[in-house]
Amino acid sequence: MSNRLATSIGSLALKNPIIAGSGEATMTEAAIRAALAAGVGAVMSKSTNEAEGAKKQLDHTDYMLLDSRWKPIPWSRDAPVDAQLFCRSGLVQEDFDVWVEKLARLDKEAEKMGSYVIGHIILNDVEKCAQMAERMQEAGLRAITVLVAAVHGDQAAKGAIAMIRDPQGIRDVVGTLRRRIKVPLWIKLPGQTEDVSLLAAAARDAGADAVNFIDRTLAMVPDLATRAPYLGTIAAIGGTWSLPIACRWLAQTRKRLGPDYPLIGTNGVRDGYDVARMLLSGAHAVEMTSAVMLHGTDVLRSSIEQLDGYLAEQGVTVKQIIGEAADKLTAYTDQPVRPGLWKQFVHPEAVDPVVK
Q1: Among residues 4, 17, 60, which one has the least CA distance to residue 275?
Q2: Is pTM, for the whole model, over 0.90?
Q3: Which member of 68, 78, 127, 132 has the lowest number of beta carbons within 10 Å of its beta carbon?
């Protein structure tokens, strides 16, 4: 594979911008090794924290696929590309020290492959989160991600997951972590907020080396047959429809923070072309999570190849296209004037009322 795929997240040089995202498909040694073997730039390990309630939540997980008309479809690697993942999830149940030892061993293997295994913590208690991050650092992990407002947090047991969605809260948390963590620190941000770019600015100002966003969205989908909610609960949903939303926030955050601050895109990516779309929107790297859960690590390998083919066809590199589309955004008022264009959407049967 050519070096046109190379990118960087701050001080970390990645051989390509594709990251196997944190999820069930990165929860075991075998799964992480499979992702590494697919050739990704990095693997984000399944999330952990200190709360027993968050770990027990994994026993209540459930998953389903929905088509574009909200009908359940079979869980299959042949599922359509626009299948939507609707699910409940939880955290790694393994003893933390055992888990960290595994990740450190896997990261050493990854280093020989020119890749990384990144520790992933979901925030609950700030002090305990800092202690866990320090333990990862001491074990030798070369980068750590902290998710400050996990999508399932609103539905989790009390005291299991913190939900930090305001700039000052982000500054406080990141500042505490930054004072104790010397390796690259990435902060994952929620999408359920008024302006993700403000949270990204707060994280950067407090010392985060990069931010990644957006997390999936909480949703409820009624079953027309049973007139009850699918899965019986509110759950997280993601699909191809969410990619344009993530791209919008990437572009807006790039505009606010400038072109050099590393952004990592996630949510809605299904192939190498989607990776390119996020790069064009301002991402320096891109996570793939739901696609790997559904299609396995083959989707990582094929996405790398597809992205490389696209770059070769365009005669460009990853670094050359980062933010290119975002930087071409214009205002509505800068667009050509097209009076009356709207009339094509007035149907013949529509009749203006008689005004007396």
Answers
A1: 17
A2: yes
A3: 78
